[in-house]
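I have been asked to look over a protein record a colleague put together. What it holds is a sequence and that sequence's fold in token form. Please read both lines and tell me whether the tokens look consistent with the sequence. I do not need a full report, just your reasoning and any doubts. This is what I was given:
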Amino acid sequence: MGDLINKSLKPRKYMKHGKKYRAAAEKIDKNMVYSLEEAVKMLKENKIAKFDESVEVHIKTNVDTKKGDQQVRSTVVLPHGTGKTKRVAVITSTSAEEAKLAGADIIGGEEMIDKFAKKIDFDVLVATPEMMPKLARVAKILGPKGLMPNPKTETVTKKIKEAVEALKKGRAAFKNDDSANIHQAVGKVSFDDAKLIENIKAFVEAVEKAKPAAFKGKMISNITICSTMGKGIRIKLA
């Protein structure tokens, strides 16, 4: 599945919240739909963690996940990145020097494959096409982790330089989950408002462009943003 899809961003299970969370949550009207600018401002004003929380976007879609032709899956290059530097590995028999010049963190050929069963120390794996048959033997290891290269996420390519540079700049892969929701980290609370707004708009636009041809009607039902530890804020985009 190429780029590391955000499997960590899942619907949250109920938990008992502390005083800081409850105090911040009281300032957010769960029945209100805010403008993006208002929501970003509220999110930052009501952060409760001591660490630099991620900012997440959660999109509820109307697709039927039981139908194979209604899956939403694509990539987006966030203008200002996610705030996290990805470790990019490249497996190739033809483009090692190109990968090195592009800034890949790990570069190798077929000899790397058996090591994946013991250790995975990268966030994204990019492969040139001739390596894909060889990667089949570790598909059961890479697949569940969202690390199997895939043409749809532009991680199977002959254009190694472009792929690595895009990943380093903040390209992220996304797909709907079994509940038709799409989740993506789009930056950090410490980002300027303008940068967060640009990243959020870029992500939502990419999701809209990824609308399956088989789906008819309005695909996006609602959009919520939140910080890692914060309450969700529903937004509307002009």
Notes: The chain has two domains: 19-81+171-236, 88-168. The CA atoms of residues 59 and 168 lie 24 Å apart. The first strand starts at residue 34 and ends at 35.
